[in-house]
Amino acid sequence: MTNLEPIRLNNTRKAQQNIIFFNRVPKVGSQTLMELLRRLSMKNNFGFHQDAVQRVETIRLPPDDQADLSALVSSYEPPGVFIKHVVFTNLSEYGYPEPIYINMVRDPVERVISWYYYVRAPWYFVERKIMFPDLPLPNPKWLKKDFEECVLSGDRECTYEAGELRDVSDHRRQSMFFCGHHRDCLPFNSEGALEKAKRAVEQHYAVVGVLEDLNTTLTVFENYIPRFFKGAGNIYWNEISRYNPINKNSFKPPVSEKVKDIVRRNFTKEIEFFQFCKQRLNKQYLALKLHNKK
Predict the structure, then answer these.
(1) Would you call 85 a catalytic residue per the annotation?
(2) pTM above 0.70, yes or no
(3) What is the DSSP letter of 185?
(4) Given 85, 171, 181, 204, which residue is catalytic?
(5) Average pLDDT for residues 130-134, to the nearest whole number?
(6) Per-residue pLDDT for 123 more than 80?
(7) Strand runs (DSSP E) across 106-253, as ranges?
(8) Quick count: other Cβ atoms within 10 Å of Cβ 58?
(9) Tens of pLDDT, residues 41-58
(10) What span, in angstroms and rounded, lies between the C-alpha atoms of 236 and 19?
(11) Whole-angstrom Cα distance, residue 87 to residue 173?
């Protein structure tokens, strides 16, 4: 550990184009990081680009759409950042230069609870209805469904079975955003998806931040991708966190540790992936500290 060097832990040096690709995971503080990048784009003089909100969010793409996305990311004038809810897309597989990949993660059980109540928040439906007026209103019974009751009653919506292949729209698979489009990435809580996700992080991602440790996250972003993130900590702590809390859901009630423990039993691989990302971030941070002491 005492021989850690930031240069060896920084995939930014492998990038072949000065474009950040932030394939943001939902409910991990990605809205906050997006706002931080927007402000930094004005301060540090780089382009800011985000995908339009879609009626139906498609996070897994067929090969032709992956190729189109790769072309789109590479079409922006550098330096710049492109942001989209989509699983890891390897641009080099489609003949385009490697961008600077970044993302965020969060405790997977806390994240799935957050998503559960996020899609039931009144303001969420108001925003969606304004953008897409013909969307039907949800069933009031579904809106009032409590997460604890959902888990304890064995409701299908809150049953998380290993190997399950069904609908990915509830976003229980945080690791999928790093694993990619391969079919091996689809089974929930599987060893194959876990290993592919770890490999992608190690080989491609410059920084994967952790929502629960923003101090370390912002320090690593500033030092490992300084062209884009210079001054990030100052802007976050003095502007965004103080005056602009983003996407805080006051409609989310507390969930007991008993219920969380029930859910955790089926999130073993997702928890392992989260711990892997935390360990990697801490290793990057420690390397900075050791380097600065020399």
Answers:
(1) yes
(2) yes
(3) G
(4) 85
(5) 79
(6) no
(7) 205-210
(8) 12
(9) 999 999 999 998 776 778
(10) 22
(11) 10
